Amino acid sequence: MGHMVPFPNPGGARVGVKDVALDLLRQHDMAETVPVPIIELCNREGVEVRETLFTESGVSGLIIGRDGQFSIYVNRDEPKTRKRFTIAHELGHYILHLRGKRDNGGFRDSQSTIRTVFRRAGDSSIEEREANQFAAALLMPETLVREYGPVSDAVALGSIFGVSAEAMRIRLEDGLYVRR
Fold first, then answer.
1. Can you give the residue ranges of every domain in the chain?
2. 122 with 113: CB under 8 angstroms?
3. What is the DSSP letter of 41?
4. φ and ψ at 53, to 5 degrees?
5. Which of 148, 129, 144, 139 lies closest to 166, judged by CA?
6. What does DSSP say about strands 59-66 and 107-110: parallel, antiparallel, or unpaired?
7. How far apart are CA 23 and CA 5, in angstroms?
8. Phi, psi of 44 (to 5 degrees)
9. Is the peptide bond before 35 cis (omega within 30 degrees of 0)?
10. CA 56 to CA 92: how far, in whole Å?
11. What per-residue confidence (pLDDT) applies to 102?
12. What is the mean pLDDT of the chain?
């Protein structure tokens, strides 16, 4: 399993990134919803989602905060499954790193930071790894993936969960759902 950085919760105990994502789904009565309505979830958290065309190539998304209002911008030219993961990734930055702050310098994420960071820790920042772990746990909760079928069928499971086959394959390869 990937590195789980503990986060404080109101009760004082430390919880991992996966737990933060699952708690968010539970708070919004979405723990059993497949696929997760990611834009609705962002809106409920007070985060606006906008599609845009980035002038810099390779940018998948970013989150910007001004005066306490945070907005996620996602590349409108990317496939729907990529947009969903990017939105969940940026929401992860908000929930894990930005909530409660009035402004931020902005997290900007490219296809390579999202893809490679999620795959393996590599040399990417801790914040990027956490945002990817959060997005994966949010969009592909372990219990629901197990419930929906054979853990080897990334294409079918990806379709059910509204993520790319690549994202599901990486998730499955991480050994999180392999029955031993």
1. 15-173
2. no
3. H
4. -105, 115
5. 139
6. antiparallel
7. 16
8. -65, -30
9. yes
10. 23
11. 57
12. 80
Mean pLDDT of 25-51: 97
Instruction: Report angle CA 36, 113, 169 to the nearest 5 degrees.
Output: 50
Distance CA 12, CA 6 (A): 11
Instruction: Please give the order of strands across the beta sheet that includes 69-75.
Output: 47-52, 69-75, 59-66, 107-110
- Amino acid at the residue 70: F
Q: What is the pTM of this model?
A: 0.80
Rounded to a whole number of angstroms, the distance between the first and last alpha carbons of the chain is 14
**Contact 143/92 with Cβ under 8 angstroms?**
no
Half-sphere exposure of 31 (CA within 13 A, CB side): 11
> What pLDDT sits at residue 118?
35
Give the SS3 label for residue 12.
coil
Q: Could you count the other beta carbons within 10 Å of the beta carbon of residue 178?
A: 10
Q: Is 76 exposed, middle or buried (0-12, 13-18, 19+ CB in 10 A)?
A: exposed
Per-residue pLDDT, 179: 46
CA-nearest of 95, 179, 176, 160 to 130 is 95
HSE toward the beta carbon, residue 61, CA cutoff 13 A: 31
167 sits in which H/E element? helix 165-173
Q: Contact 87/49 with Cβ under 8 angstroms?
A: yes
Cβ–Cβ under 8 Å, residues 48 and 70: yes
